[in-house]
Structures are given as structure tokens and as C-alpha cells.
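Action item from last meeting closed. Structure (211 res):
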């Protein structure tokens, strides 16, 4: 049930109870209460609940929205065009008094090469956005990305932070989770090199929560 429908249901139940109570009490001063006042009160009550709901949602914005990431994941990334794959184990936890989510990963690819990498996600309250810093044992650059979480579609979008690159490198990906948040599919691409004729790395990654 959507939040707005839930609020309507609560509002209806509360005011049906009030209406019935007022109209059936023989000694009550509200026996002849005008139905228009009941409808008006119902409408005002609904507006108050909606306002409080929006306020609560605004206050809840933060790193805890991505709590479903916490745990241990086994992943496989494939670049079908190049016949390449990489498997990773990622352990995900809260750090720095719960203000950041840390990914600690180890991987091996289809050529037998091993690497390690760490990702750090936080919620920038001033910019009102999720941001991620990534570091890799086999890559000289620190990457900065902006994340957008769509809870209705269970989709996490990742895009390189504007003006964060000293050389051309565009990144974009969409991670879609299943209803239980224990599996996902990550589809994306990286563009780098010559901005007029970039090299493109397309990939599909599937992840499974193991703990």
C-alpha cells in the first residue's frame, strides 16, 4: 500500500469512529452534529497527517536509506564484448560513527589478475546527495561519484561527479535490486580517452548477498 493510501485509510477510520460516537450518544451534545463539520474536520486532519509525514520523510534523509547495502556480497562483472569477467567478494559496513558506508573488496578476473578496492559512500547534507569515493590497487586515480536512490524502482544510479575529472572519463551505471534486496543487476558503461572518440567499457554485474 502506498503511503498516501495508508494515510487516507487511517484518516477514514479515525473519523468514522468519531462520527459514529457522536451520533449514537443520546445524551451527547453532538447528537445533531452537522455532517459538513465532520467532513471539514476529516479534510483538515488528513492535511495535518500528510504534512507530518512529509516532515518525517525530510528528516529521515541520510545514509540509513542505503542500509540494504550492509552485509557480504559475491559479485560477477562481465564485459561480453571483450570476453572478460571478474568476481569479487565485498564486505559492506558502517564506519565513522555510522556516517559512512565502507566497501572492502577483493577480486580476481578471467586473466587471473587479483586486485583490491575500497568504496566509501556518505550523504552530503549540504548538497543533499549521496557521494562515493573509490580507490583501487590497480588504478592511479581516486574516483568521485554521485549516487541517486529511487526507492520506488529499487534503483541506485551512479554517475561521475561533475568537474571531478582532470581528464576525460565518464561513468554511468544503474543498479536494480530485487524485492528482498538480496540480489541485484548493475548495468553500466565507462567512457575514457579521447572525448571525441572515446573508448567504451560496457559491463553487466550481478550480485548476491551471502550474509
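Sequence:
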Amino acid at each position: 500500500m502506498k503511503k498516501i493510501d495508508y494515510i487516507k485509510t487511517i484518516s477514514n477510520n479515525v473519523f468514522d469512529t468519531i462520527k459514529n460516537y457522536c451520533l449514537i450518544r443520546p445524551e451527547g451534545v453532538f447528537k445533531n452534529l452537522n455532517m459538513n463539520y465532520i467532513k471539514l474536520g476529516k479534510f483538515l486532519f488528513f492535511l495535518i497527517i500528510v504534512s507530518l509525514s512529509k516532515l518525517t520523510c525530510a528528516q529521515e534523509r541520510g545514509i540509513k536509506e542505503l542500509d540494504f547495502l550492509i552485509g557480504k556480497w559475491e559479485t560477477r562483472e562481465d564485459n561480453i564484448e571483450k570476453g572478460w569477467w571478474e568476481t569479487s567478494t565485498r564486505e559492506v559496513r558502517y564506519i565513522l560513527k555510522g556516517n559512512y558506508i565502507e566497501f572492502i573488496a577483493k577480486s580476481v578476473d578471467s586473466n587471473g589478475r587479483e586486485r583490491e578496492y575500497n568504496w566509501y559512500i556518505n550523504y552530503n547534507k549540504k548538497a543533499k546527495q549521496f557521494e562515493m569515493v573509490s580507490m583501487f590497487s590497480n588504478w592511479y586515480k581516486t574516483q568521485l561519484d554521485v549516487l541517486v536512490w529511487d526507492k520506488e524502482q529499487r534503483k541506485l544510479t551512479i554517475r561521475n561527479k561533475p568537474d571531478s575529472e582532470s581528464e576525460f572519463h565518464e561513468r554511468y551505471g544503474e543498479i536494480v535490486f530485487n524485492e528482498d534486496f538480496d540480489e541485484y543487476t548493475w548495468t553500466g558503461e565507462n567512457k575514457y580517452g579521447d572525448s571525441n572518440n572515446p573508448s567504451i567499457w560496457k559491463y553487466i554485474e550481478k550480485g548476491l548477498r551471502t550474509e
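Note appended to the action item: The mean pLDDT is 83.
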